[in-house]
Design goal:
Number of strands of chain B: 11
Distance between the termini of chain B: 38 Å
Distance between the termini of chain A: 41 Å
Strand content of chain B: over 45%
Largest interface: A-B, 22 and 30 residues
Strand content of chain A: over 45%
Number of strands of chain A: 11
Radius of gyration of chain B: 13 Å
Radius of gyration of chain A: 13 Å
Oligomer: heterodimer
Largest sheet of chain B: 7 strands, mixed
Helix content of chain A: under 10%
Order of helices and strands of chain B: EEEEEEEEEEE
Shape of chain B: globular
Order of helices and strands of chain A: EEEEEEEEEEE
Shape of chain A: globular
Largest sheet of chain A: 6 strands, mixed
Number of helices of chain A: 0
């Protein structure tokens, strides 16, 4: 069965510092991985997906199949990046999402 | 374009009761997925409906059931409520089932409290 692990529940960094949110997965097939973000009082929304290999709001994430990881990175954190971040894996006949437990990122001024 | 809406926003029920939660999908979307998010956890997949048929199901008992209507709106029904059913219930809509690349758009959720 698939599993997504986010080892850090809370992460605090100072504005301008690099940030890395960790995500590890367990899946026997070829993974489709995503990062979702939830800003305060807003709904859950897609941040980026690994197949797009894109940078969104300065964030990037590289799929490392050898380490089964999909860490989210940003070189210079901004206060507006403060939010809850969820890593998710898509699988199954319904293409359903399996989420990690989330990391609350706080960017301090 | 109208986003995903859910009703009600909050709901309080007692153990053993039944509850119905509602979701209107985003305009043009024909697939609705339901997730349960317990406090401090990520969303957990309950089931998905595509063109009014259940298209996949997570590890939830049969007392969790659903419907999808011709206009693609959906209901989640939970019978014989238990205390552990207290959670945020999220609905997500997308354009098509079992096809890659289609993003799921989430609603604001319904907060269910079971006393």
């Amino acid at each position: 069965a698939q599993r997504v692990t986010q080892p850090e529940k809370l992460l605090s960094v100072f504005k301008g510092a690099p940030v890395e949110l960790k995500c590890n997965y367990s899946y026997s097939g070829s993974p489709e991985l995503f990062w979702y973000v939830q800003y305060s009082r807003q709904r859950l929304q897609l941040l980026l997906r690994h197949i797009s290999r894109e940078s969104i709001k300065g964030f990037t994430a590289d799929l490392n199949k050898g380490e089964t990881s999909f860490h989210l990175k940003k070189p210079f954190a901004q206060e507006e990046d403060s939010a809850m971040y969820y890593c998710a894996l898509r699988s199954g006949s319904a293409r359903q999402l399996t989420f990690g437990s989330g990391t609350q990122l706080t960017v301090l001024p | 374009e109208t986003g995903v809406t859910q009703s009600p926003t909050h709901l309080i029920k007692t153990r053993g009761q039944q509850v119905t939660l509602r979701c209107s999908s985003q305009s043009g979307h024909n697939t609705v997925s339901w997730y349960q998010q317990a406090l401090g956890q990520g969303p957990q997949f309950i089931f998905q409906y595509y063109r009014e048929e259940e298209n996949g199901r997570g590890n939830f008992p049969p007392r969790f059931s659903g419907l999808q209507f011709p206009n693609y709106s959906s209901e989640l029904n939970v019978n014989a409520l238990e205390l552990d059913d207290s959670a945020l219930y999220l609905c997500a809509s997308s354009l098509a089932a079992a096809s890659g690349g289609n993003e799921q758009f989430f609603g604001p959720g319904t907060r269910l409290t079971v006393l």
